[in-house]
What we know:
Radius of gyration: 18 Å
Mean pLDDT: 87
Strand content: under 5%
Distance between the termini: 33 Å
Amino acid sequence: MRVANVANLLTGIRLVLVPIFLLFLFAGDGHQTGSRITAFIIFAVAVITDRFDGSLARTYGMVTEFGKLADPIADKMLIGAALIGLSMLGDLPWWVTVVILARELGITLLRFAVLRRGVIPASRGGKLKTLVQAVAIGLFVLPLHTWPAPWLTVAWVIMWAAVVLTVITGIDYVVSAIRDSRERSAGR
Length: 188
């Protein structure tokens, strides 16, 4: 399978968008309304490319080894950059960033650890977690300090949901990996 295809191009675009997103997120003092809205748009476009690249790759047989490796790296870079950036700006407590990134790093390491026995596919819960994280982070990227109070409350409710889903799906992946490992050992 050729590496140069539309799905991998979208992954590459997402990788390129990460530093551009950060430039707008930190523009000026990091709290300029226009820059934050632009950062949100860039973040949203990057999240949308993630949705399409996987669908295209599976639907049209464009799955490549490069895509399998680069896609999750691009995802983690985007989410990680946004969380760290928001925490650096004081818009998101560091504990939220640490919990989410620790889970993401842990599951990534788990995936590499069991790679020789097979790929750990994304679960429905994992996909829901990714969606809720993206919505929550996107809301925090927006200049909510200039909006009516209920919007910040909505953003926090969604962020709490993202944190809970992050922890629950992380535990689920670990339990599934242990169960799968035991089943393989018993089957030998």
